[in-house]
Please model this.
Amino acid sequence: MAKTSASAMKNFEERLERLEDLGEKIRKSDIPLDEALKAFEEGIKLARTLEKDLDKIEGRIEVLMNNSSAGEDEKPELGLFDDE
Model:
């Protein structure tokens, strides 16, 4: 995910919510095996993309926190967390 805007964060949150829904669906004992397998496959794909996104976010935060040119009173701007 190359975007770092509030809409990208919402997209991340929506995908995380979808992953949680899939996990709940798989735990139900009354769904057919093929449906559970499809949900599992979708969940694995979502988990991988979310993990990549978190790695990118973590890297950006590390760069911002380790930026020695910023003064102590300056706060780094993280577009991910804007309320726009």
User: Anything to note?
Assistant: The first helix runs from residue 6 to 27.
